[in-house]
Amino acid sequence: MIRDGQYVEVQPGLRLHYASCGDPSKPLLLLLHGFPEYWGAWRGLMPAFADDHHVVAPDQRGYNLSDKPADVRDYRAPLLVGDLVGLIRALGHERCVLVGHDWGGAVAWAFAIAHPEMVERLVILNAPHPVPFARALAGDPAQQQASRYMNWLRRPGSEERLAENGFARLERLLQNPDGADWFDAATRADYHAAWGQPGALAANVAWYRASPLFPPTESERGAAGVSLDPAAFVVNVPTLVVWGERDIALLPVLLDGLDALVPKIRIVRIPDASHWLVHEQPQRVIDEIRSFVADAA
């Protein structure tokens, strides 16, 4: 059974809300959602791992019931990574299997780079490693076009636009090319409740405003002004990347050259899944994670 309504202080003055299932004495499996979701993105997957793991899905900083700092600078990568350090230790663990989707995957990449000793295994679901992402945002016209939404979200007032007409834009974002069959009435109500938390949408778009990685514009160089040394971004933990190839925002080009940055990598491509593969093909995602984690045992 999934238990939510739990809180823990992960850094001084900052609390995260989380849901969990499984035995807290067993190895930690940590699930990180992205935009515009919340811990409930993992509701369909969590029980599948509860027999062997302490399964924890937090609302990340700024989302749903977690604390929402007002300053955009409070959403920079080092602080997001620090949240995970504090969360893992506060839960009584030293290491975890770390799973991240979208922005949750971005944080998971950064965490594994900074703290490989705390990551048993890394699982990434449709989230680009920073080096190929920066390269594509700076010089790949197709990815620049696919990522134009990032610049829209960075604009002042985007949070108000997202809330208009009963969160209509956010609902459209969650649709895959064949329609969002998983987004039923009950799920819709839960997402509306998360989006409607005071300050939530402003905090959610602050993640985009805080990041230096975005397509160049006439006034800002964005990723074109960022120089990343690949040697500083090597991931030295066993890594599984599962990629829905129908993702219209994050293109398969972002997988190119990953083996040079992640020596112990396994890439699984799902041709008929979109960005929302966790919802569209939950059993496939469960099976891939279970197989990958079992290899470690």
Tally of contiguous helical segments: 11
Low-pLDDT segments: none
* Corresponding CATH architecture: 3-Layer(aba) Sandwich
Measured on Cα atoms, how large is the radius of gyration? Answer: 18 Å
CATH class placement: Alpha Beta
Name the descriptors.
8 strands; 297 residues; Rossmann fold; alpha/beta; eight-stranded mixed beta sheet
Brief write-up:
37% of the residues lie in helices and 18% in strands. With 297 residues, the protein is of the alpha/beta class.
Q: What this model shows, in words?
A:
Helix 1 packs across helix 2 (103-114), helix 5 crosses helix 8 and helix 6 crosses helix 8. Helix 9 (258-261) links the parallel strand 7 (239-244) and strand 8. The protein has helices at 77-90, 103-114, 130-139, 141-146, 148-154, 158-173, 185-195, 200-210, 258-261, 277-280, 282-296, and strands at 3-11, 14-21, 28-32, 54-58, 96-101, 119-125, 239-244, 265-270. The protein has one domain: Alpha/Beta hydrolase fold, catalytic domain (Rossmann fold). An eight-stranded mixed β-sheet has the order 1-2-4-3-5-6-7-8, sandwiched between helices. By secondary structure, it is of the alpha/beta class.
